[in-house]
Design a protein that fits this description.
Elements lengths: L13 E4 L9 E5 L8 H13 L4 E5 L9 H11 L3 E7 L2 E3 L11 H4 L11 H4 L7 H13 L7 E2 L5 H17 L4 E5 L12 H12 L4 H11 L5 H5 L1 H26 L4 E7 L2 H8 L3 H6 L5 E5 L5 H15 L9
Parallel strand pairs: 2-3, 3-4, 4-7, 7-8, 8-9
Antiparallel strand pairs: 1-2, 5-6
Helix pairs in contact: 1-2, 6-10
Length: about 325
């Protein structure tokens, strides 16, 4: 089974990050484009150019080795030889591009379509479709393509225990096989507040919440559910929000503990929406809790469409909330 790692969806950017400790140096980093990782020669040129530009940290998308060539291993060797650090850059919840589905039938989206997030708008239609049939994935992919202005791919839901285990296994494999200095968690979020209404996710919430309800409340919602299969999330909207947020946080903590168990010194960072209110509301990223509890070591606010002055103010607020934790800005 293949979990898609960041490869096609990559950008190049420079960041600056500082920590409160005088023993830690300024981070001058670059996110590397996958197209740069085509051969040992292209990797050596990229590393040399980065070093000459004062870069000391590389964020490198993980790509499967092929024909004896392993891009991440080559990058680590070349970068470490120059005293540079390498962070493995992983897509966490985004599983694939909807515009070009993975060719391998071993890919997660084919092996476990029940783990894919479903938007509320499409959910009623998908209830009538066998989740293992090609039609299910086809409808979801077509809907995603039609909404490309706000959605960048198919997402794996953190509401499934199996998905947690599979993503953690990928992290364990990467941290075990490679002498990385950091692990960067990208797309560790919901694509919108109107996800995940997949049948398995709604069933998981129903199972979780029923034991906390009074008999009368259960009977009331059960009667609504006889008409509306989404009665539990809709009648208990705040509990539904907290359920999704808590499960995403649980995934963050699982990935951190998995990485640290193998390589204690690895620095775990996460890409987040800079505004904590929007991050929690739209993507269920409770990154303030992640920072306060040490679930991540560094924060990477992603750029947005806000005017420059407004963005600077937001980043200033992020730095204030982060306290002594590093904040690395992707430009």
């Amino acid at each position: 089974m293949t979990l898609r790692l960041s490869a096609a969806f990559v950008v190049c950017a420079v960041i600056l990050g500082f920590t409160a400790s005088a023993q830690e140096v300024e981070v001058r980093a670059q996110w590397i484009q996958a197209t740069t990782l085509q051969s040992p020669e292209s990797i050596r040129r990229m590393v040399a150019t980065a070093a000459s530009n004062g870069i000391n940290t590389l964020f490198v998308p993980v790509r499967p080795p092929s024909s004896g060539f392993d891009p991440l291993a080559e990058t680590i060797a070349a970068a470490h030889a120059r005293g540079m650090r390498v962070h493995a850059w992983l897509d966490v919840n985004r599983a694939a591009s909807a515009s070009e589905l993975p060719p391998s039938r071993d890919h997660l989206i084919y092996q476990h379509p029940e783990w894919l997030m479903v938007p509320r708008e499409l959910a009623p239609d998908l209830l009538a479709v066998d989740v293992r049939s090609p039609e299910y994935l086809g409808r979801l992919a077509r809907w995603t393509r039609a909404n490309a202005a706000r959605l960048d791919g198919l997402y794996v839901s953190p509401l499934h225990t199996g998905a947690h285990l599979q993503i953690a296994a990928t992290v364990r494999d990467v941290v075990t096989r490679y002498a990385i200095d950091g692990l960067h968690l990208d797309h560790i979020r919901f694509p919108g507040a109107d996800f995940d209404y997949s049948r398995a996710a709604v069933d998981a919430f129903r199972t979780e919440i029923r034991g906390r309800l009074t008999a009368a409340e259960r009977a009331r919602i059960d009667s609504v559910e006889a008409i509306d299969p989404f009665a539990y999330p809709e009648e208990l909207s705040e509990e539904w929000r907290l359920f999704r947020q808590t499960q995403l946080t649980a995934l963050v903590t699982r990935l951190r503990s998995t990485a640290k168990a193998v390589r204690a010194g690895v620095v775990v960072s996460a890409a987040v929406v800079a505004d904590p209110v929007l991050a929690a509301r739209d993507g269920f990223q409770d990154w303030r809790t992640w920072l306060d509890n040490g679930f991540i070591d560094a924060l990477c606010p992603v750029p947005d469409d806000a005017p420059h002055a407004q963005s600077e103010a937001i980043i200033a607020d992020v730095r204030a909330l982060a306290g002594s934790k590093p904040v690395w800005i992707r430009n």
